[in-house]
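Section 3.1: Structural characterization of target chains.
Under the original work plan, the team committed to producing a structural model for every single-chain target entering the pipeline before any wet-lab resources were allocated. The record below documents one such target. The sequence was received from the expression subgroup and is listed exactly as submitted; it comprises 178 residues.
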Amino acid sequence: MKRASESIAAQTHNKYYGVGGFTAVKAFFANYVNFTGRTTRREYWWVALFATLFGLIAGLGSSIYMVHQVFSHIEQFKTGMDSGNFWSIVGSMLGLIIFWLLVYLVLLLPSLAQSVRRFRDAGVHWGFFVALALVNVVWSVVFFNDNRMTAIVAVPVAIVMLVIEVMPSKNPPVEEAV
């Protein structure tokens, strides 16, 4: 796995600073709880690309599986379903819910760590990320049943976060002469 030089790693507190491609995805998991370092735009967006592709493929697979489950039991839906078939479908749905919950939990901490590092690399204090995330969560909880009210805060917060995430590195590390 490609790594940053020792001087760059020491300056950024990230031994994978500036990597791309599959190495960025490996670095994402290797820096699982590294909230102290910095992350380049390149690292951040490679991970975003792979996460999007994984989400699309897994989401499509989940959707195809659920449609298959429904169509394989369509006759029973029409005539009345016995409890065995009902629990079979519920079990399938529960399995998918558990799968997606586990994926979310596995990716939550490294995603938060990477976002904090990206904010720091862009020259924005990590507390600003925490404040934006908390505002989003609290607002979403308060207006749980009102999508319009949730969007009033969620959309601007997402735009602010996106703008910060596309900002170039502020005071990028410099390779020190040996």
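The helical segments are 6-12, 22-30, 41-72, 74-79, 83-121, 126-142, 147-166.
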